[in-house]
What does this fold into?
Amino acid sequence: MRGAQVGIQFVPFLRILNSERTSDMAQVAEQTKKAKGSVVIAAERCKGCGFCVEFCPPEVLELSTEYNSKGYHTPILTKRDLCTGCDICGMVCPDFAIYGYIIKKKTKEA
Ligand code: SF4
Ligand code: SF4
It folds into this structure.
């Protein structure tokens, strides 16, 4: 009986969580579709110096509030649609913990 009550209380909460996750994923997918580039981040190599954040021309990186296993804040791509894939973040990173790349778009066959 008690388990059933708990289940009833949590079902709407889980529905809200799932709908938020679905809309977040849809937003990420939409932004990724528009993006010219993206980055690969090796969080465990990062020492949280913030060079990549400082030198990114369109300012699309931020240091996360999360920590890696060494206790450093690592960068995250916050504005996915604005990354150009220029790889300046990769050039300035002293730890080879990030690199940018250009997304190849499929072209229509003639
Ligand atoms: S690839 Fe260029 S635009 Fe993208 S995050 Fe790195 S520096 Fe910024
Ligand atoms: S430049 Fe490299 S080490 Fe520094 S915060 Fe960015 S990814 Fe981490």
User: Anything to note?
Assistant: The CA atoms of residues 29 and 100 lie 18 Å apart. The two ends are 65 Å apart (CA to CA). The chain has three helices and four strands. The chain has two domains: 1-34, 35-105.
